[in-house]
Structure prediction request, 285 residues.
Amino acid sequence: MKAAAEREPRFPAWLGSPRMIAACSVVVGIGLWQLGYEALARTRYFKAYAIHHFLSSPLQVVQAFGELYRSGELLRHSYFSFLEFAYGFLLAIAVGIPVGLLMATVKKINYYLDPWVSCLYATPLVALAPVIIVWFGLGILPNSLVVFLGAVFPILLNTYTGIKSVKQNLIEVVRAFGGSRLQLFFKVMIPDATPAIITGIRLAVGRAVISVVVAELFGAEAGLGFMVYFYSQRFLPGPVFVGIVVLVVFGIVSFLALEKVQGWLSPWYAHQLRRAAHGMEVEQP
Prediction:
């Protein structure tokens, strides 16, 4: 009776994992895309309105990927976009974290910089990109500056918020035991704010990828954004989708890598998230 009551699950547990569900969702979406394209291709409107100049199937995208890869064009464009992303993103980290720390700990610096940060953060990047390109010309440098402006503010603001959100009881304990300001800063504030800082860096990844495309649309001689614009002007959707897919995959891989870094730098925070998620699952009827 006890064995009958404790029935074995019909499917392995790994099939119900969040990552497997997400992967299945992507596969189903690609399958529906292919089926929709094949159904549309059988209609008389497809040839009448030349829809193949505006839409590609997943198989055609894979074929275009192979052609661009064999010709070396995809690697060349990816190389330039990666350089622009790396330079701008690393500069954003090098500037955003120290400035956020200073604004959170020194009131006068916060008073001086807060208006400028608010103004620049509220300014659309699309409006700033042409100005930067006019000032610095074409090339990796101006595009990297556009990426920097797109990525620095999430890092800066999350660093500021993380330092300001440090638990007051931890600060009081360190002060009660005679801890110095440096000990308070490096042993309490920085570790407690690390999850917020890493979250800001993860948010900045998406903005940096968008900034790469924006910069290359306004002025570039190579890059994935340039490739998307170039082939869209020639009504070749296959290479356009290839550029989009490469940018999306790069953003997802970077985001997941930073998630691993966050778990390594602040394991207690990852443990809290797992406990919270488990508690939500238990509470569900």
